[in-house]
Specification:
The protein is α+β, with helices and mostly antiparallel strands. It contains eight helices and 16 strands. The strands form three sheets. Strands 1, 2, 3, 4, 5, 6, 10, 11, 12 and 16 form a ten-stranded mixed β-sheet that branches. Strands 9, 13, 14 and 15 form a four-stranded antiparallel β-sheet that branches.
Length: 324
């Protein structure tokens, strides 16, 4: 009897929510919910590792759900496990992806005056083991035939005592309504990063090798850039060459010199730091974990929920999972 009563109450309360009149302020205050999506993408992961990786992501989700309850929206969440390439791997990349979908209504459309859930948004939160998508970095070596021989870091993480912080970046002019921002947090074993910055000398040698391939392929046009690289290598002093390579985005396919740190349109050349990774651990082991919070601004529901998720994710707990 009690079970039937509970079901009736649940149906009644759900119907009351769905029948909510079109009032955005009221919709923003309605209880939200978690919604589990499908099984998620799986590619290149062994069965034993997959089982452990699912368990790790479930642990993270359970800890988050115990602290955070959605309000005014649905959090559509899924797990994904995917890697490809022939390089040496030190850890599988896997993801807990959360997409925030707000309650909406259209007061001018008789068919949509009742509440419905948006089908997409630019606000999402991802917890990622063994990958830093912003730099295309993984817990793996670069492939031997990698075109550049390095990766590109558009910003420098700052050590905050327990994690690395990449700051908050906007995808457009902040005077434009609806722009998005992205914050990136990197949890590592210690204050050592899973990548290192190339010096100017290291970058020049990689660039020289790439230009030589272009010339051997018949592109004599690149001889001018080879000459410029050799001039730097032969004439610049050791102190200059030991500084970090800051590269202009428009120059990387050629070589016209180095950029200045902090200048617009530049990046740091980086490579995976293989000395960082603990060897011979199962590939399911988190070696570093990235938290990415992307949110639509000028929308209080998205901002409040994204911020609440960020606060509810325990970075110290994530750090305690590393190497285990």
């Amino acid at each position: 009897m009690m079970k039937k009563l509970f079901l009736l109450l649940l149906v009644f309360s759900t119907g009351a929510v769905l029948a909510q009149e079109c009032d955005p302020d009221s919709l923003a205050k309605l209880p939200g919910r978690w919604k589990k999506a499908g099984p998620g993408a799986i590619s290149g992961i062994k069965a034993d590792d997959l089982a452990r990786e699912r368990a790790n992501l479930t642990k993270i989700y359970n800890a988050l759900a115990a602290k955070y309850t959605p309000v005014g929206l649905v959090v559509d969440y899924a797990q994904a496990f995917s890697k490809n390439g022939t390089q040496k791997w030190y850890g599988d990349p896997y993801y807990l992806a959360m997409y925030l979908l707000s309650y909406l209504c259209d007061p001018n459309d008789p068919e949509k005056k009742k509440m419905y859930v948006s089908i997409a948004s630019s606000t999402n939160v991802n917890v990622i083991a063994n990958a830093l998508p912003k730099f295309d970095l993984y817990a793996a070596e670069l492939e031997q035939d990698d075109f550049r021989g390095y990766l590109k870091a558009g910003s420098k993480p700052v050590w905050k005592g327990d994690y690395w912080y990449l700051g908050e970046e906007a995808d457009a002019d902040q005077n434009i309504k609806g722009y998005t921002t992205e914050e990136v947090f990197i949890v590592t074993y210690t204050d050592t990063l899973p990548f290192y910055y190339l010096t100017r000398k290291e970058y020049l040698h990689l660039t020289r090798a790439r230009i030589e391939k272009e010339i051997k392929g018949g592109s004599e046009y690149h001889n001018q850039y080879l000459s410029r690289v050799d001039k730097y290598l032969n004439e610049a002093d050791a102190e200059y060459l030991a500084e970090l390579a800051v590269v202009n985005w428009n120059d990387e396919e050629r070589f016209n010199g180095f950029g200045e740190e902090g200048a617009k349109g530049t990046f740091w050349a980086i490579r995976p730091n293989t000395a960082y990774f603990r060897k011979n651990l199962p590939l399911s082991t988190p070696q570093f974990i990235t938290l990415v919070v992307k949110k639509t601004n000028d929308d209080a529901v998205y901002e409040q929920n994204a911020d609440a998720i960020r606060q509810a994710i325990d970075l110290k707990m994530l750090r305690g999972m590393l190497g285990k």
